[in-house]
Amino acid sequence: MRIAIREARVVDPFQNLDQVQDLLMEDGLLVDHLQGPADKEILGQGLMAFPGFIDVHTHLRDPGQTYKEDIVTGTQAASKGGFVLVCAMPNTSPICDSPEIVRYMIQKAEQEGFAQVLPIAAATLGEQGQSLSPYAELKAAGAGGVTDDGRPIAHAGILLACLQEAARYGLPVIDHPEDSALAKGKAMNAGPVADQLGVAGMPRAAESICVARDILLTLEYGLPIHLCHLSCKESVDLLRWAKSQGAPVTADTCPHYFILTEEALATEGANAKMYPPLRREEDRQAIQEAVEDGTIEIIATDHAPHSPEEKGPDLAQAKNGIVGLEHAFALSYDQLSLKAGLPLIDLVTRFTKAPADLLQLGDRSLKVGQPANLCLFNSHLPETINPENFASKGRNTPFAGRTTTGSICYTFWQGKMTYERPMHA
Questions:
Q1: Averaged over 104-123, what is the pLDDT?
Q2: How far apart (Å, rounded) are the C-alpha atoms in residues 108 and 115?
Q3: How far is CA 107 from the centre of its chain?
Q4: pLDDT surpasses 90 at 150
Q5: How far apart are CA 144 and CA 323, in angstroms?
Q6: Cα–Cα distance, 28 to 42 (Å, whole number)
């Protein structure tokens, strides 16, 4: 299929490019000219074209929990948000700690999906934190990294072994920094809002203690580590210090941590409950500043769909997590570019080049000859977030009813148009 996008503003961090130009696609690739008339022509005036987004932290729930999400609906949600690649977390059922499950995820996405799935396999067998998964076999099957996300690797010796073995095979290690002894059974951030709601609160130290441990390990042994979904000021302070010392550490956070605070639980209930929890305003500000200056390099979604029953009225018992793929960029654009003045190319970097660097994916630019993986964003086409319109099976979001300034209009994966915004939306 031949597709022509005329005079879009192309913002491509891989080329340090921000200019108006045409983009032409044929046979799944970006080309300098078409071999015939375009099958579809898109007038790009008013549209921004970006390399397709990469989410380093997605819960697809497939295999084993497909009543919440599956690879088809999860990648459809991803495409609606401009993502062409999502990293699937391993806390499926069974746990993704074998090459068979890695291959299953990849093949199902290739055959039925709307985006590429890159499985992030369990760092330890069964995510039990005791013995390492078979890294060589997982890498050969196509795993893009290892993590025990959802469960911290509590034993520093096991984490060190994980870092050493992962380095042998070029697998990024993504750690979930949390001290289980301090976090277990806690429904939200410790403080006056938790007291008001009558639920147990988690101290910020539950996260920052593990951030400090991980940083000290990387400094001692020179082995890289990636810290996921950072949420509090102390973690940012430790990360800044680590980078000043040359520690090979990177990090991500999610839009909810730089947009919302713990106050959201008082109005949104379990739809604002997640791990790590929403924190105080000073934490929100610290996370946002770290994203703006690049201390936190990556914006991820931590897309975590649950059934309505699992997000019931009992805040203490409700599952953790919110859905995030479909509006992560639009929300971030409003908060960081429009409100805070972050240059657009820097924002796009957080969704494209920075995650590509972490995952060692190489050049994913919009150069001629590259696979046609891209999205188009209209910064003047508002969208009101309505869970009933989600492609995801999940409806658990604290952003329902919020109107974003702009929206993703098209997504292309390998030259196929996987999402087109309906004109009436």
A1: 98
A2: 11
A3: 21
A4: no
A5: 22
A6: 17
Name residue 25's beta-bridge partners: 3, 30
Q: Which amino acid is at 140?
A: A
Joined tokens for residue 75? 């990648």
For helices 156-168 and 205-221, angle between their N-to-C axes, nearest 10 degrees: 50
Catalogue the active-site residues: 302
**pLDDT category of residue 40 using cuts at 50, 70 and 90:** very high
Give exposure, 384-420, as e/b (b: 16+ Cβ within 10 Å).
ebebeebbbbbbbbbbeeeebbbbbbbbbbbbebbbb
Comparing 321 with 424, the larger pLDDT belongs to 321
* Over residues 23-48, mean pLDDT: 96
Q: Dump the DSSP string for 261-318.
A: -TTHHHHHGGGG--SSPP--HHHHHHHHHHHHHTSS-EE---B----TTTT-S-TTTS
Question: What is the distance between the alpha carbons of residues 12 and 352, in angstroms, rounded to a whole number?
Answer: 9
Q: Determine the 3-state secondary structure of 35 from DSSP.
A: coil
Neighbouring C-beta atoms of residue 134, cutoff 10 Å:
15
Per-residue pLDDT, averaged over 92-102, amounts to 98
Token digits for 259? 């947009």
The string of DSSP codes covering 135-202 is HHHHHHHT--EEE-TTS----HHHHHHHHHHHHHTT--EEE----HHHHTT--EESSHHHHHHT--EE
Neighbours of 147 (CB within 10 A): 30
pLDDT computed for residue 423 by the predictor:
65
Would the CA dihedral through 346, 244, 226, 180 be positive or negative? negative
Tell me how long the chain is. 425
Maximal CA-CA distance, the chain: 67
**DSSP notation for 217-252:** HHHHH---EEE-S--SHHHHHHHHHHHHTT--EEEE
CA distances for 420 relative to 31, 228, 238, angstroms: 21, 31, 42
